[in-house]
Amino acid sequence: MTHRIEIIGNATLYLGDCFEVMQTMLENSVDSIVTDPPYGLSFMGKHWDHGVPSAEVWVECLRVLKPGGHLLAFAGTRTQHRMATAIEDAGFEIRDMIAWVYGSGFPKSHNLKDDWQGWGTALKPALEPITVARKPLIGTVAANVLAHGTGALNIDGCRVWTNEDCSRKQSVVADTPTGFGKGIAMGGRGSDLGRWPANLIHDGSEEVVELFPQSAGQQGDVKGTEQSHTGTANCYGEYGRVPAAKRGDTGSAARFFYCAKASKSGRGEGNNHPTVKPTDLMRYLCRLVTPPGGIVLDPFMGSCSTGVAAGEEGFAFIGIEREAEYLQIACQRIENAYQQSRLFV
To answer: Could you tell me the domains of the chain?
Structure first.
C-alpha cells in the first residue's frame, strides 16, 4: 500500500496506518519511541480512540527499535493496565511508570440529586501514566550502549534544576586531608548538575504545587559520610571519613520533581487536536531516552507535539498519523518550527 509521505528537514511524516507503515521500515532503525496513543476511552466520541493499540502494533514497534531502545507511551488511568500488558506481551521489558501530574483536569461526573446530593461518579483527573519500556538488551547495558547507543537513560541531561548544591562528598581514605571536590557523586547519587530525575513529573501549576508539603530537605549527614570513631586518625585528626555538609534548604516538595511548563502557544495556530501534550514535556521525554543525534519515532503522531519537541532537541523524527486533518496540522507545525528555528537541519 502506498502511503503519503511529507519530508520537512529531518522530519519524515507518514499518512497511514502505523502498523502498515512500520512494516515498511527497517528493523533496528530508530533509537526511541515517544508516543501518545489512543487510550481506548472514546474521548469526545472520536472513533480513533475506541481501543488501546494491540500487541501486534507494539511488536512492530519492537522490531524497528534498536536493541535496548526505550518506549515511552502515555495512557489513561482506566486503561493503563491494558496498554502496559499489550506492550509487555509484544516482548518489551516494563521498566517503570512515570506519573505526569497536572492541574487542568475537569471531573466528568454524573452528580446525583435529592437524598444523594453530593455523591457523584468520577474523581477529578489529575495525572496520566506513561509506561517506560525497553527492548531487550544484547549483552550488558554497557556493551549494548557501545554497540547501539541505546539501553540507558540520559540522567544528567534530565536532572531537575535547582539553585541548591546537590553534590555529595565521597568517603575518603585516612591519609586524604580534605576529601574530594564538588560535583563528584557518592555512589552516583548526587551531582551539582541538579537532582536525579524522578518517575513523577508535574506541570508547575499552582493547583498542583499546593498539594506538595513544605519540606526542609536533607538536614543531616548523608548516610555513609558520618565521622567514624574507629580506626587510626591521620595527621589531621580525621578517622577516614569526612562529614558531609548539611543542607538547610526549604520550600515546597514540588521542587524535587521536573516541572513541564504548560504553554498556550505550544499547540500551534489552528491546532484543534483534543489531546495535545506540552512541548516542554515532550522535549524532556525525548531527551531522557534518545542518544545524541538519534531518531525518535511516534507511531501515533496526532498534531506532532513529539516531532516539534524532537527537532528542538536536535533529533531526527519519524511520525505516523492515520487522520488526514491531523497530518495537515502536523506538517504546518513542523514547517513553522523549521522556519523559525531552522530545526531538523
So the answer is: 4-158+257-341 (3.40.50.150), 161-194+216-250 (no CATH)
